Automatic annotation (TrEMBL):
<feature type="domain" description="Core">
    <location>
        <begin position="12"/>
        <end position="116"/>
    </location>
</feature>
<protein>
    <submittedName>
        <fullName>Iron-sulfur cluster assembly accessory protein</fullName>
    </submittedName>
</protein>
<dbReference type="GO" id="GO:0016226">
    <property type="term" value="P:iron-sulfur cluster assembly"/>
</dbReference>
<dbReference type="GO" id="GO:0051539">
    <property type="term" value="F:4 iron, 4 sulfur cluster binding"/>
</dbReference>
<dbReference type="InterPro" id="IPR016092">
    <property type="entry name" value="ATAP"/>
</dbReference>
<dbReference type="Pfam" id="PF01521">
    <property type="entry name" value="Fe-S_biosyn"/>
</dbReference>
<dbReference type="GO" id="GO:0005506">
    <property type="term" value="F:iron ion binding"/>
</dbReference>
<dbReference type="InterPro" id="IPR000361">
    <property type="entry name" value="ATAP_core_dom"/>
</dbReference>
<dbReference type="GO" id="GO:0051537">
    <property type="term" value="F:2 iron, 2 sulfur cluster binding"/>
</dbReference>
<dbReference type="InterPro" id="IPR017870">
    <property type="entry name" value="FeS_cluster_insertion_CS"/>
</dbReference>
<dbReference type="InterPro" id="IPR035903">
    <property type="entry name" value="HesB-like_dom_sf"/>
</dbReference>
Length: 120
C-alpha cells in the first residue's frame, strides 16, 4: 500500500512474503528500525541491456519517494525509478545459481542473458 503520494494499483510495487521475510531479517541484522527503515529499490544506468536494478537499505525515505509496505517491509522508490519499475513484484529465489532478490517487471521488453539488466 502506498503511504506517500498517490499511486494506482497498476504502478504499485508488490513484494512476496518470502522476499519481505528475507529483507526484514537482513534489516534487523544491520540493527535498523524496521518501523522507519526500508529497502530502496531503484533503477540505474548500466548492464549490457542498458538499465539495471539496485537495492540498498535506507534508514528513512527521501521526501519525494513513493513508500509501499507489504508484509511489514517498507519499500522506497524514487520518482525516476518508478517510471521503469511501476507494477513490478519483488521476489526472493533460491537455487543452484544462488539465492537472491529478483524483480519481476512487466515493463521489460528485453533482458540480457544473465537477467541482471533490462530495457523498457
Amino acid at each position: 500500500m502506498s503511504t506517500a503520494g498517490t499511486a494506482d494499483t497498476a504502478t504499485e510495487i508488490d513484494v512476496s512474503a518470502l522476499a519481505a521475510e528475507q529483507a526484514l531479517d537482513l534489516l534487523e541484522g544491520e540493527g535498523m528500525d524496521t518501523d522507519v527503515a526500508g529497502l530502496r529499490l531503484f533503477v540505474q544506468q548500466g548492464g549490457c541491456a542498458g538499465l539495471s536494478y539496485g537495492m540498498r537499505f535506507d534508514g528513512e525515505p527521501e521526501e519525494d519517494d513513493q513508500i509501499y509496505e507489504h508484509h511489514d517491509l517498507r519499500i522506497f522508490v524514487d520518482p525516476a525509478s518508478m517510471n521503469y519499475i511501476g507494477g513490478s513484484v519483488l521476489d526472493f529465489e533460491g537455487g543452484l545459481q544462488g539465492a537472491g532478490f529478483h524483480v519481476e517487471n512487466p515493463n521489460v521488453v528485453s533482458e540480457c542473458g544473465c537477467g541482471e539488466s533490462f530495457r523498457t
